[in-house]
């Protein structure tokens, strides 16, 4: 059974870089057919897709609204997926999730990690 576990900094100051790690067990990040995604949910708002990384080649797709500040990568030896968001602003405050899947179809989710951007 696949399990995803996010870990993040909790609190990040404005203009700094937010880094979140997703550790996957029970499946390989290099073979899952649908790939892996990052999604966030700001307080009181709906889910926002951040980006996706393909299993076969590590190619990424990123939400155009976040593309200039977002990097998604992976460590295949550790079966981990990484999200970095630079120059954060208070509006980046959200619960950040990793999920297995893409194209807005996800079959497994992590529990999420709260990240607050505040000075």
Give the structure's gist in a few sentences.
The protein is mainly beta and 119 residues long. It is built from no helices and 11 strands.
Write the layout of secondary structure elements.
Blueprint: E1 3-7, E2 11-12, E3 18-25, E4 36-41, E5 48-53, E6 60-62, E7 70-75, E8 80-85, E9 94-102, E10 105-109, E11 113-117
Parallel strand pairs: 2-11
Antiparallel strand pairs: 1-3, 3-8, 4-5, 4-9, 5-6, 7-8, 9-10, 9-11
Characterization of this structure:
- Helices cover 0% and strands 51% of the residues.
- The chain is globular, with a radius of gyration of 13 Å.
- The chain has no helices and 11 strands.
- Strands 2, 4, 5, 6, 9, 10 and 11 form a 7-stranded mixed sheet that branches.
- It is mainly beta.
- The model has no long low-confidence stretch (mean pLDDT 96).
Low-pLDDT ranges:
none
Q: Main beta sheet, described? A: 7 strands, mixed
How far the N terminus sits from the C terminus, by CA atoms, comes to: 39 Å
DSSP summary: helix tally: 0
Principal-axes geometry comes out as globular
Mean pLDDT: 96
Overall helicity: under 10%
The SSE string, one letter per element, is EEEEEEEEEEE
- Counting DSSP E segments of at least 2 residues, the number of strands comes to 11
Which range does the strand content fall in?
over 45%
Query: Gyration radius, to the nearest Å?
Result: 13 Å
Structural class: mainly beta
